[in-house]
Write a structure and sequence with these properties.
- The chain has a domain of 62 residues.
- The strands form two sheets. Strands 2-1-5-6 form a four-stranded mixed beta sheet. The chain has a two-stranded antiparallel sheet with strand order 3-4.
- It is extended, with a radius of gyration of 21 Å.
- With 190 residues, the chain is of the alpha+beta class.
């Protein structure tokens, strides 16, 4: 694997010389820059000096078989939090509950901004309690499968998330991209 293979952040679908779709690896410099900034920040503010053993990054090591723990690698987690009383060591990774809370906050923010920008096409993806505090979302964070989070760049250079929640959340946007791609293809044939 080359350094460029390691930097691939998505895939671009482009036409070849015959107009047939061809898949190319795509490096998003902005994403690579942001991840590099996160790494620099983590090294300066929340450093770790040795890799974490599986007992420290598996959420419930006591419920995981010793054989499985032995097969898991040592890691330097990029996405790590500060120590807390129940996990008092540097390099603590977020628990499932912390990821779910962050996901809910993200979905509430997406809903708020979408509804501000598109008042005629409002979405309702977060349920709230009586006080207005977000309680749950119709979309849930989950352990991603590779096909769930692959970015594809379409013929008009717009990005689209393939499958899973991305297709549902951006259904109208995806339809618009498809229509533009079909129009561009029709114009190219004329």
């Amino acid at each position: 694997m080359t350094i460029m293979d390691a930097l691939i952040t998505g895939y671009r679908i482009v036409p070849d010389n015959n107009g047939l779709p061809q898949v190319e690896g795509h490096v998003d410099p902005d994403l690579v820059r942001r991840l590099s900034s996160l790494l620099a920040w983590q090294k300066s503010v929340n450093p770790i000096f040795e890799p974490l053993a599986p007992e420290r990054y598996v959420e419930r090591p006591d419920a995981t078989s010793p054989d499985r723990l032995k097969r898991l690698p040592l890691i330097f987690p990029l996405f790590r939090l500060f120590p807390k009383p129940s996990r008092p060591f540097p390099g603590r990774i977020p628990s499932a509950q912390e990821v779910d809370r962050a996901w809910l906050a993200l979905m509430a923010e997406v809903e708020t901004h979408w509804n501000e920008f598109f008042p005629d096409d409002k979405i309702d993806i977060v349920t709230r309690d009586a006080s207005g505090k977000p309680r749950s979302s119709i979309y849930h964070a989950h352990t991603p499968k590779p096909e769930d989070h692959v970015l594809f760049q379409t013929y008009d250079h717009s990005y689209a998330l393939r499958r899973s929640w991305g297709r549902d959340l951006a259904g109208a946007w995806m339809k618009d991209i498809r229509l533009k791609a079909e129009r561009i293809a029709d114009e190219a044939q004329s």
